[in-house]
Batch of 2 targets.
Target 1
Amino acid sequence: MNAIDTSIDSAIRAAASAIVLENVSKSYDGTTQVIPPLDAELRAGEFTVVLGPSGCGKSTLMQMIAGLERVSGGTISFGARKVQDLEPKERGCAMVFQNYALYPHMSVFENIAYSLKVAGMPKPERVERVEAVAKMLGLSDLLARKPGQLSGGQRQRVAIGRAIVREPGVLLFDEPLSNLDAQLRHDMRMELAELHRRIGATTVFVTHDQVEAMTLADRILILNKGRIEQFDTPKAIYHKPASVFVAKFIGAPPMNIVPVTGDGKVLRLADGQVLVECPVFGDYQLGIRPEDILVGEGPIKAGLRYREDLGSHAILAADLGGNLLRIATPFGADIGTEANLSLTFPPLRLHLFDAETGRAIPGAFSAQ
Amino acid sequence: MVENARSLNLVASAVLFLGMLYILGPLYLTLTTSTQSYEFMLRNGLVWYPGDQFFTNVIRIFSETRIPQQMANSLVVAVGDALVTCVLSFISAYALVFFPVRWGSVVFASILATIMLPLDIRVITTYQVASNVLSPINALLDIIGLNGLIAGVFGAPVVLEWSVLNTHFGLIAPLVAHGTGTFLFRQFFLVLPKDLVKAARMDGAGPIRFLFDILLPLSRPSFAALFVLTFLGGWTQYLWPLVASSTPNMQTAVVGLARLAPDMEGVMPDFPLIMAGAVVVSIIPLVMIAVLQRYLVRGLVLSEK
């Protein structure tokens, strides 16, 4: 790493600012709210992934942070600055778009340098900055080419270069990997993680891909219909989902959710089968991850419907009192062709959710 | 080709050949006639073989007729028409596509409607307006009754008058407002990636910078295509220059060509001279097409996607 590289790194690291959203809301027609008032604090230098199904408002949220959409209410601060009424260029943030949005008629150099040119930076300085960024991203040999002559991964890197050349304190990514094929996506994920470690910009990354979210994020913000379902580390999101929505959204295959009824001592299925001891009354939803179910000896009976051997493990689809239950077992587990499975649900691996709100009830099983 | 049958191929070729004959036959006759002398034509009529008087005829065009000056008029009209149409279309399409224009679709529809109202249909009203550009204001003053008031106070109503007939401006202005160009640019802008605008905004480029730095360079093929099309339209325009220009030194080359045939009955027009004139007048648009034809195709193809 040479001296110039370090200066860009440290400039971005120094500019990285926390993003604070207070009461931010968005409505296009004044009646239906795409984003109801929402509060969140993204820490300085943190890599935050905004995850949610399509139409959940995650792109709108990002565009409001970027300044491409106006907020209908509330405030957005970068550090101590209130930015919600500023133009994008005044906010000190940069964005990488889903389909790169490179300027097709400009060379790679011109693409990266354009924002500096608009800002009126003198040419020698511009050249120096662009070359430093190109070196960092391995684009030095491609500076004279047009975007049309580049591969998908190279275009992606140019788009990133264009974003970081201004040394933004906030870096925004709008589903940047969704146009790449599986292998390239994996490589770019690695590159992005390395880049973030190096430059340390406050990063917001919007995606609907849970793998990207789990691997890249310091913290994941899960959005559902404009509301924050959970905002926590990947580990916490996986192991302590705050709601049925989160539990079902993260994990492949997703968590099993079965409706149960508590009589103060045990939880039962609708058909009366006892699943686990738990001193609660009323209707609940019980969740357990496919890989947490133990197959073999056990009190719980389920009928095997289908099995898929995936090499590293096998996925079983079973019928538990009318509910579909997915079970992940180590490959080759000796279950033969038995139609009836005996299962154990380890209590510490169980999640209990309110039947109506879907919110998690913490400590339901750890108390035992 | 959907099918590859031999007989179908033959028929298709025959149709093409007939079409070519239909177009090229008269053109060929133009060329051969332009190479004969007037006397030769009077004796033999129009013939299908070339003679040796072509350059004599061309020299006569330049020395005895007003065609050279009229070609200059044509050039001014065609280039003016093409340039102004390009700029107007580009700007109006820019406004329609990239800004939330209230009633944008209504505006666009009314722009498109001009395609269905070519100059040939509205030539009389256009002539009226051109003969007095301010006549709509006069009419307005009459309608709202202000003129009656003025006539009562000052003794005479206000009658404003400004004629643009027999001027280059008058020849160009009614031609430039045409929906085709707006449509062409609009379609081109619509297929551009939406994120391009956002990316430019993130880079700090305002609407004007975006227009000049991003949109204009990208639109070059569409510009070239529209320029060629309107240039040709302006060059070959007949009806409007015919009515709007009253003196020979304001007429365009196409009108001048038609005027080469004498109005008197019983006199055989000097067809070799006229045909030589037609050849000379065709050269500029031909060169234009030859130079810009690859843009022409690219611009039109891009707009269709």
Note: Chain A has a mean pLDDT of 88.
Target 2
Amino acid sequence: MVAIADSDSEEMEFSDIDEMEEAEEDSDEELQRKFERGELKPGLYREAEKVVKEHKNNVSGLKSKLEQFRLELPWIERLDFTLEAAPIAPELNAEIIEHGQTREKRMRSQNKYFTLEDDPVHNDFVREMSFYRQAQSTVLEGYKKLEELNLPTVRPSDYFAEMAKSDEHMQKVRKRLMQKQVGQQISERVKKIREIKKYGKKVQIEVEQQKHKEKREMLEKIKKFRKGKTDSIDFLEGGRSLRDGAGGNRSKKDLKKAAFKRTFKDKKYGFGGKKRNIKRNNIKDTKDERPLPNMRKPRGGKGGRGGNKKGPMGANVRGKGGKRGGTRGMVNKNKGRSRK
Amino acid sequence: MGKRKRERAEAKKAEEVNPLPPVVPPLVRDSEEPVKKKRKWTNKQRVLVFASRGMSFRNRHLMEDLRTLMPHSKSESKKENKDNLRVINEIADMKNCNKCIYFENRKKKDLYMWVANVKGGPSIKFHVLNAHTMKELKMTGNCLKASRPLLSFDTAFDSHPHWALMKELLVQTFSTPNQLPKSQPFHDHVFCFSILDNKIWFRNYEVLDTDGKLSEIGPRFVLNPIKVFDGSFGGETLWDNPQFVTPNTIRSLKKKQESFKYTDKVRQKEEFKKRKPKEPFRGDPTNDIFQTKAPEEAVNEEKQIFIRKKV
């Protein structure tokens, strides 16, 4: 290696990755093909010894190199920090825990053997949080230092200059965020409605059962009363409460009106007494001059509606369709003529 | 060497000037006296950011993102020839750059990133993994195009000499020089470098508030270090990563495993064919002799055969 020219050795250094790859491709098939071509002969070759690659770690070289190219600049030129991650803020910790819980809950329903430690998604979240915390500690420390040097820190909201991302792009980002939020809200609302429905169904069933029960009891009591086992009909008063409960209390005015109506109807149609022959004609009716309430007056015009559509024959066939229909047809004819 | 000395001298000067005492101009000034030039921009780092041919679109966006976030960067057209990397030193020299980020593309899918100090080295070769660009909509932050970033490093960077060297080189390339004419006055974003699983994870956050509220701007990527070289794009290897497996090896292993699945299936089928009997199984004919029935169950003629002896 020493004898090789300097530049060559350097070339070797950074191209040996590719050589490694090529060596791996020297498969059995390749050898067989070579053997067929006569490039290999039996007995002449033995398996090459496996070379264990030595990995370089030239510590002194690394250190001297670092010293050589390090720039001794004040901090303000570099703005670098080497810091531990900031301690977990309580809200961040809560967020991590919540994420873990929701993730576990969801995945447990699909996979019984799910564990949070092996979950790449949750690990991703935790990892990102660690990066976030590292950056956070830098910001806290860095802003302290910048303020000591009287340098501007965070960009004020009214400072306009070219940004890394265009306004158009930021609009897209905002839109996506909004969509996400709306989606979340909708899903939450749906969840709530589902819950309410579940509860409402329960209540509905209960009310129905109660109604049935009361009805049954009432019927039983009526049966007893009919058979003469009880004398009082107080239960009827009690039974009304159900209806009242459903429809609300009737006002006094309404009650009065209903009573009046009843008395009127009783007077008109009679209350009790015989029900037979009530609709039969009698002398009194025949002598009555007043027109019968439901008798229709003959209506004009309707009979001949569209009278002439089927031609004169149609009108003739109708015959009884009425005089008027005929005349209407005539009018149409006249109209036609006048147009001519 | 000369230039470096000069740079150091300038740096020292900068240190003296830097705390910036309130400048009060003298009441009377001689018109003959030449006006002293204010030299604020002392750390003149320029970074050449470019790539070889055959880059995928995502990686190209990543490169462009780096260009937008680094106002001290310069661009160059794609490099044609992949073999001779030493030419890059000359290209950088012509572009007046003393740092270089070069994206090397292999097979249109593997991306390697070289970070080099052009004069006198060192240079580091990384394998870029899991690249996400700034264009992705889940990155909600935004920052000034040319504001100077704070650089945040994991404490693990001080644990080993190779990490320390990487940190120094990353600081010099990624930090925007103070008072760079293109740069903006505010400090509204952080570059975060963390070491996890022997890889460097890069994140870029916007600072929303002085109390440390952040939101990610992007890009994000993971750098798997392969080698550290003494020179720029060449030279003696100072360190190489024992855990590094080439993406080619990973792919070929995966392919092999998949092919095993097929060959196993084929072999199993053949074996079964060999084992399968050609004739149906024939039992011992004498077995039938001892087949009996309980006399109660016997029907018709069988009744005469199966009889229970009377004791």
Note: The longest helix of chain B spans residues 247-275.
